[in-house]
Design goal:
This protein has 120 residues and is mainly alpha-helical. 51% of the residues lie in helices and 12% in strands.
Length: 120
């Protein structure tokens, strides 16, 4: 039972990370952070949104434990903290040209029958 609870907690944490990352600006921020440490002004140069808006996105990512920062003089320098993000970004970069085919028993393809036991 303890192993199941651990796995369930891990899935909940991962789902929360996906929720926080599910925004175009946040994905762009994470892409830049995957290249190295950045400060807010670095993000302003390519995101074309206001500094307060960028700071809100950074705060959400930081609150979720995805990124963190250190202070260098007057600058807050942000960096990736959660290693899952690198894998997530790689998946998002992949090109999937075709959809998966429907199953043989699919009502759309009109082929085959359902292989399992029908319960009613």
């Amino acid at each position: 039972m303890v192993i199941f609870e651990y796995m369930e907690n891990q899935m909940v944490l991962r789902a929360e990370i996906l929720k926080v990352c599910a925004h175009a600006v946040r994905i762009a921020i994470l892409e830049e952070l995957s290249k190295g440490v950045k400060c807010v002004s670095d993000f302003e140069d390519f995101l074309n949104i206001s500094q307060p808006n960028i700071s809100q996105h950074l705060a959400a990512l930081r609150h979720a434990g995805i990124i963190d920062f250190f202070i260098d003089g007057r600058l807050r320098c942000y960096f990736l903290k959660n290693p899952m993000v690198i894998d997530l970004l790689e998946i998002l970069k992949k090109d999937y040209p075709d959809e998966l085919p429907g199953p043989e028993c699919c009502p759309i393809t009109k082929k085959g029958t359902y292989p399992g036991e029908r319960k009613r």
